[in-house]
Specification:
The chain is an alpha/beta fold. It folds into 2 domains: 72 residues, no CATH class; 155 residues, no CATH class. Helices cover 45% and strands 15% of the residues. It is built from 10 helices and 7 strands. Strands 2-3-1-4-6-5-7 form a 7-stranded mixed sheet. The longest helix has 21 residues. It is elongated.
Length: 238
């Protein structure tokens, strides 16, 4: 009983210590990991054993059913999304922008570049990925933490001769405050592809701040030609 109580206390201290050290708001998923520990602690008490066991079993069952049947909780299609963006670059020469996790994008083949911090890494992206043996051939700009003013300024400064821009956007709440979603909701999006957890948008540049909102332009799934191009690429990681 004492050991289990000590383990529960240690788990709470670790979460609070990470919160203080990283200055990041506590996420529900971080606190959810402590729930089974508290239930196990209650199971050690004779009077609450049955109730804690039912709650613990029901919680795990609900989590399994949610991951199995609800699309928003299913595994993200990171590899296919990154390779589709790389394929679009190979086909069109468009500049690739990463509005997602730079580490995952580099792991699956993009040569992510950008100044420090290359979140969650504190150094610049180039030096951060030099020490890992991941094959990266296509340059990509790390822009996931750009605000709206910076996104609009960068897009409006581009010359038409520089070509289109391919934006890989991660669809999770950690990226909702990014400056990209408002821009990607305009009528300058030429093509929009959806993968599980990700969106790929092809933009015509330059784009100015007076671009009009898109009129319910539907998002398409990956086209057969794009999927074929992505599958024909040499696999990076499986």
């Amino acid at each position: 009983m004492m050991r289990l109580a000590a383990a529960t206390s240690l788990g709470c201290v670790e979460v609070l210590a990470l919160y203080v050290a990283t200055h990041v708001q506590l996420d529900t998923r971080q606190r959810a990991g402590l729930v089974p520990v508290f239930l196990l602690l209650l199971m050690s008490l004779p009077r609450t054993f049955a109730a804690a066991l039912i709650l613990l079993s029901g919680g795990w069952l609900a989590a399994d059913l949610r991951a199995q049947f609800l699309p928003e909780y299913q595994k993200e299609d990171y590899r296919d999304a990154v390779q589709a963006a790389l394929s679009l670059h190979r086909q069109t020469g468009a500049e690739l922008v990463i509005a997602a996790d730079p580490v995952g994008s580099a792991y699956y083949g993009a040569d992510v570049l950008g100044p420090a911090p290359c979140y969650p890494i504190l150094v610049a992206c180039g030096p951060a990925f030099q020490s890992v043996p991941w094959p990266r051939a296509i340059p990509a700009i790390n822009a996931g933490r750009w605000n709206l003013a910076r996104v609009q300024g960068w897009l409006s400064s581009r010359d038409e001769r520089e070509g289109d821009v391919v934006v890989l956007l991660r669809l999770d709440r950690n990226h909702r405050d990014s400056g990209w979603p408002p821009v990607l909701a305009t009528d300058r999006v030429e093509q929009r592809l959806r993968f599980q957890g990700f969106e790929i948008d092809v933009l015509k540049t330059p784009i100015h701040s007076d671009a009009q909102p898109a009129l319910d332009k539907p998002a398409s799934s990956a086209s057969p030609s794009l999927a074929a191009a992505a599958n024909s690429m040499e696999p990076v990681h499986k």
